[in-house]
Amino acid sequence: MVLADESELRSTDERGLADEGSVSEGPRPYVARSLWLSSEALGLTAKIDVVEGSEDGSVIPIEYKRGKAPEVPEGAYLPERAQLGAQVLLLREHGYICNAADIYFAGSKKRISIGIDDTLLTTVRDAVRRVRVLCSRTELPPPLEDSPKCDGCSLIGICLPDETNLLRKERSRADDAAPSALRRLHPARDDRLPLYVTEPGARIGVDGSELVVRGKEQTTRARLPNTSHVSLFGNVQISTQALRRLMEQGISVTFLSSGGWFYGRAEGIGSNNVDLRMAQHRAAADPATCLQLARAFVEAKIRNSRTMLRRNHDGIAQSVLFELEQLARKAAESERIESLLGLEGTAARVYFGAFSGMLRGEAARTFDLDGRNRRPPKDPVNALLSLAYATLARELTVALGNAGLDPLLGFYHRPRFGRPALALDMMEELRPVIADSVVLTALNTGVVGESDFLRHPVGVSLTPAARKRLLLAHERRMDQIVTHPVFGYQVSWRRMLEVQARLLGRFLLGEIPTYPQLRPR
Questions:
Q1: Residue of 99, 103, 100 whose CA lies nearest to 77
Q2: Each residue of 131-177: pLDDT tens digit?
């Protein structure tokens, strides 16, 4: 069976040169590029960089590598040689004479011939058998321990080997425990940027590898490879072609009201990890697991609220900090989720009762917060908090979906039609340190002022310009590099959300004993 186009190689065999599907007339020898072959019998699929055909009818696969040729007798390390061995097997399976294979190392500009013998081909077949056995199991293989192979692996952000091994060994951490020093094997931040479209009536199309946003007065372009996700606010149109390209690229598209209310998202096929979703559903049906996770979420939320007050409230009363500390302890020991709801509500009243004390300068004289209210918010600070929480919920929904989890199936927040309950669960511990921090920064630095609010008989809303400025403040916060409180390395807040989502998956699969709370010091 050929996935891409078997006729491509065969027609190349007969007609000459092929380049990414194009075939040109010409005598032998010939070259085919980006040839995708697969075989159900072998259990292999491969996209071969280059296949050279010679006058005697034999072919040679050539693999391109960016690095330099290693100084080893075989000409390349075993993984590279095994890759060429698999390509040789595939070409033979499709009826070609193939007894040689080469690797071109761009770093040293050398083309190295790789010996193809029975030992190498047996190694490839044995590896395929082991992989098939591994795939038939429901549990993941154990992560490697301090292995140099992890450095540079493209799946390191999903595997998280050092983090998983650390959490397996540390069954419990003291509140004031110093972060462990781990290798940061994945990038600190995602270099791709989100695209927010807030202008009513704007239209999004696609032109080549770019998204084209046409507004009333200007047109903006965003390269697809540099886009992390797309958020559409209000009446923004997106073409079917653009939506399909985004799905092909694995870029999520979220739909929100003009005020920031999260309606839902569109994505491609998504994660193939069915076992993780089954584990999530089993855990959601288990009251003990739900209680364990709910305690972790609520305790971390209360402690992070306490940390916010301790950092930013110059005159915070010790009684407030003491009360929050006691509530956090009770949450950690709670035996019922219903009790957690009461403790969380009490802590929220204490925290928001002191929230105005974190405002500084002109903001302290202009704004005040008399408790939390919403739908619609009754005062400017609550309007900012509502938008910040909705934006954070959207971020977590995307992160959980990318990690292979169902954002609608929560453990603390009960499932409700259309509600991203799991995103709301994980948002609990992050509300103070991300969303509240964004609002405080926006008010204290004058990013948002008194004139940026529209007052209605039933509530308060932000002007479109102020909404854009708050979203920019949110992006700055998500891109900020911070020290991970558990692992000790520095990552952006957005990357930290992704790590938390994947560690929750590890907990649900039983690979780590507890879900690690995210509690900045």
A1: 103
A2: 888 888 777 778 888 888 887 787 887 788 888 888 887 655 555 55
Q: Which residue, 409, 406, 514, 509, is CA-closest to 138?
A: 509
Q: Which of 375, 368, 324 is nearest to 346 (CA)?
A: 324
As a three-state string, the secondary structure of 435-479 is HHHHHHHHHHCCCCCHHHEEECCCCEEECHHHHHHHHHHHHHHHH
Distance of alpha carbon 181 from alpha carbon 49, whole angstroms: 40
Is residue 214 within 8 Å of 202, Cβ to Cβ? Answer: yes
Task: Report pLDDT for 175.
Answer: 53
Sequence-separated (6 or more) residues with CB below 8 Å from residue 270: 401, 404
Mean pLDDT of 236-245: 92
User: What tokens does 76 get?
Assistant: 């390349």
Residue 97: name the closest of 53, 40, 64 by CA.
53
* Top-confidence residue, 439 or 16: 439
| H or E segment and range at residue 492 | strand 490-492
- The distance from CA 155 to its chain's CA centroid, rounded to whole angstroms, is 12
Q: Which two tokens stand for residue 303?
A: 């402690």
Identify the CA nearest to 214 among candidates 201, 228, 233, 196.
201
Q: How far apart are CA 462 and CA 443, in angstroms?
A: 13
Binding site as annotated, residues = 344, 413, 428
pLDDT tier for residue 438 given thresholds of 50, 70 and 90: very high
CA–CA separation, 457 and 378 (whole Å)? 9
Here the tokens at position 20 are 């990414």
d(C-alpha 481, C-alpha 143), whole Å:
26
Question: What's the mean pLDDT in 182-202?
Answer: 82
Task: Give the CA radius of gyration of the chain.
Answer: 28
Q: What per-residue confidence (pLDDT) applies to 12?
A: 38
Q: What is the average per-residue pLDDT within 260-281?
A: 80
Which pLDDT score is estimated for 5?
38
Mean pLDDT of 264-271: 76
Calpha distance 65→58 (Å, rounded): 23
Tell me the binding residues for Mn(2+): 344, 413, 428
Residues sharing a CB contact under 8 Å with residue 351, sequence separation 6 or more, in sequence order:
302, 305, 306, 308, 309, 324, 432
How confident is residue 13, by pLDDT bands cut at 50, 70 and 90? very low
B/e letters for 322-351, b = 16+ CB within 10 Å, e = fewer, are ebbeebbebbbebeebebbeebbebbbebb
For CA atoms 207, 270, 475, 365, give the dihedral sign: positive
